[in-house]
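Hi team,

Filling in the usual template for the complex we talked about on Friday. All components are listed, including any nucleic acid strands or ligand strings, so the model treats them as one assembly.

SUBMITTER: L.P.
PURPOSE: interface mapping
COMPONENTS: two
RESIDUES: 382
SEQUENCES:
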Amino acid sequence: MHLPDGFLSPQLSLPALAVAAPLWAWGARRHFGREAAESLPVLGTLTAFAFVIQTIMIPVPGGTSTHLVGVTLLALLFGPLAAFVCEGLVLLLQALFFGAGGVTVLGVNALAMGLLGPLAGWLAWRLLRRLSPRVALFAAGWLSTQVATLAVAGVLALQHRLDPLVFPVEPAVTLAAMMVPSLALAGVVEGLYTIFAYSLVRKANLRGVEA
Amino acid sequence: MYLVVLPGRRALGVTVRVQLLVVTALLAHPALAHETLHQVVQGKGVAIRAFESDGDPLAATPFEVYSPAEPKVAWTTGRTDRDGWLAFVPGGPGRWRVRVIEATGHGLDVAVDVPPSAATAAPSVPPAAGPVGGPGGVAFLLRPLLGLAVIGLVFTALVLAWRKKGRAPPP
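RESULT (copied from the run log):
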C-alpha cells in the first residue's frame, strides 16, 4: 500500500502534500500540545507498535504481500487527527530508513492510510459500538483497510489516466491486485488486531487514555 | 563453403549464376542465418535486486529501464527473476532510471549512475550497495530499531518539554 517515489507525478503528489501539511499542523497542535502531555507516552508506544506491525509482511498468493496498518486503534482511542499525525511520522521514518513508501508521495500515503482509512473506521465504530462493541471494532479495522486501499488504488488509476508512462498498470488490474488481498486477508487481520489491541489497552486502564 | 566451376559455354552461364547465388547468400548471411551467437562480457552490466522491507524478493515483477538519452521511452523491459534480480547492459554513460512496478503500487524507482568507463569497458568500480544494504546485512536488521529509537526520542522529548514548562493552565 506504500506508494514509492516516482509512481505519481507532481500533479497529484503536490496537492496531496498541500492538503496534508495543514492537517498535520492542526493535529500536532491539538494532540501533541501541553494539554495532551499525559497521553503522549501511550500515543508514542502505540505509534511505535504501528511502525513495527507495518514492517511485517503477510504473504499473499500470487507473489505479492500485504501488511497491517494499526493506526485505526489510535483513531478510536485518541481521534482520527491524532492517528493522521502518528501515521505521518511512521510513514516518514519508513521512507527514510526502509525505502518503504516515498518522501514525495508522503502526502498521498498519509492521507490514504492515516486519515481516510482511520476516519472511516472511526465512523463505523461510532455507529456500531452500541449494537456490539466487538463487531464495531472489527468493522472499524476492516473498513479502515478497505478505504485506505481503495484510496491508493484510486490515486494510481487517476495517475494512469493522467500519464500512463508514470504508472503503466491498467486501473482494473491495480484495483483487483489491491482489493482482493485487502478484502480477503488484510482487512480481516486488521479487524482482529483492532479488537485484540483495543481490549488490551482498555483492560490496562492506562493513564492518558480517555474512558 | 565450396564453389564448383562447371566446364562448357552453357555450363559457364550456370556457373556465373551459381556464383551470384552464393555471393548473394553470403551477403545475406547475417539476416538469414539460424545460428545464434553469443559473447560473454563480465562486469559490464548493472544488476539490481528488489526486495520488500522484510527481505522478501519482488519476484517476477515487471521492470522498465530508461536511458539518459531517451528518458520517455523504455530502453528495455522485463521481469525480475525469482530472487528479485534484474539486469541490463547500459548503452552509454549517465543517469539511467530503473523502475520495478507491481500492480499493487509497490515497487521502486531508482537512478543508476553509469560512469563513462563502465559504458565502454568492464568497470573497475566496486559494486554499489543500495541505500539500505542487503537483506542479510547488519544495517538492514538495525533499521527497525533505528525507527523505533526515533519515535521514542520524539515522544520522550515532547513529554520532557511539557513537563519542564509545567502543566497546562485550566481552560
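MY TAKE: Residues 10-204 of chain A form a domain with the Arp2/3 complex 21 kDa subunit ARPC3 fold (CATH 1.10.1760.20). The mean pLDDT of chain A is 90.

Thanks, L.
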